[in-house]
Amino acid sequence: MAGPTKLKRDAGVVGLLYASLGSIIGSGWLFGALHASLQAGPFSVISWVIGATAVLFLAFVFAELSTMFPNSGALVHMTHVSHGDFVGKIWSWVLFLAFVSVPPVEVSAVLTYANDYIPGLIHANNGLLTGMGFVAAAFLLAFVVVLNFLAVRWVIAINSATTWWKVVVPVATIVILMAYSFHPANMTAHLSSTPVSGIFTAVATAGIIFSYLGFQQAIALAGETRNPSRYIPIALIGSVVIALLIYVLLQFAFIFALSPVDIAHGWANLHFTGMFSPLAAIAIAVGAFWWAVLLYVDAIVSPLGTAFIYVTGSPRIIMAAGEMGNAPRKVTQLNRFGVPWIGLILTYIVGVLFFFPFPSWQKLVSAVSLITVLSYSIGPIILLHLRKVLPDAKRPFRLRLASLISVIAFIAANWIIYWTGYDVVKWLLGLVAIYAVVYLFWYFMIHRGRAADLGWQQGWWLLPYFAGLWIISLLGPTSKPMDGLGDYGFFTGMWILAGFSLVILVLALRSGQSSEMAQQCSERIKNLGTRGIETVEGP
Description:
Elements lengths: L12 H12 L3 H13 L3 H25 L5 H27 L1 H13 L16 H17 L4 H29 L16 H9 L2 H5 L4 H4 L7 H30 L20 H8 L3 H35 L17 H14 L6 H17 L1 H11 L12 H18 L2 H25 L9 H4 L2 H13 L15 H22 L3 H17 L8
């Protein structure tokens, strides 16, 4: 029996806002304040503002793009329209990694907190998953995936319910921590022990940018809303602004609640009992035992809620890749609830694999942050190129000062990649390089494709882009987490990268598809949205 032929448009403005906000408030709020304090001390408040500002520039860019392509998996589609098949295939891989790697982070967060009442899930000395922890992680991820086999309206309803919880609990935590323990002098303590560079590296490695990038969920569900021109911008921008207020206040509350003894040896040596579950540990230390119990409950609800909505988005990226020829056509099949079920299965399999090289929240979060930022760094390039080659295309939301905002967004994205440090950069670019080599081998040796049809004319700029990111990170400062060779200082590297970003932006804009090719690809994508996806009944 045949299943539905289209994704169902059941997501309203509230559902989309909740999808983004629910993804932003995941495990980041449970760990971010601690790790930001370790790197930036009281200046960590500035780190949250910097992270939100960078993400807002990206959100402005995608507010226009996502309404031009209101399909699920929209970023895959718009990349093909702007820069052709080769860039589209590379970015499909990057996007897939960005989405599928987040649920393992959230599951790791659940198990890290749960170890306090179910000992044996993580190693007490380093926070890495034990053998029992690996098994528990696989089962938790399976639970989240199974729930996503439901119709999208139930997915949105579940996420909306958990989002209310996920907003109320952090706000209440702010009030309770300040009420039970208030040491405002901590804001001026040991400031000299904190390097200025820590303000920026915390953005990339403490879970700050990782948290904010949850705004993208509204884009992933763009094809399932009836009024994308109105609803998408509200969801994107509104979710980031609300989260900024919550996170900044939470950072203040965390710093104020610390005992001066905890920071007696400087912020980099901040230490207190139970640091692997920091907020619950502080609640216990200040006497709010009853609230610590609720925080342990929230350490299940918040991360799993975020994992849930990312598992919702990942199969739609896979489905979009199938629509554009970047994956087998079979992955576009929907079950009777209108859910891309094959993509869900792939999401689970690859998600489980992520636990092995990165068996802890701390090890995963920097890498996932970098992958996700890279996946969205192409947005400013796409917007500016489509403004040039498709000037008359329908734009339900048209961004003002698009050129200025796009340039700032692209530079900010590359800065965040630089701030994660060389060890993470080389890991990410290694994955991209492996995929590119495998794809080129398949294309020329098995598929017997022609070089003229590869799309290298539109994608050659990727080589200097990735090589430049690698070299600039390699030659950067030796301090943690940068881990470079020390050929120049932290801020010198930022200025070099800013100039390099402008060069890459010019090269990418000159290499994009022609107006005719972009129009043809755009029409193809519109036809996908109007005729639906051929399906067979699945699970």
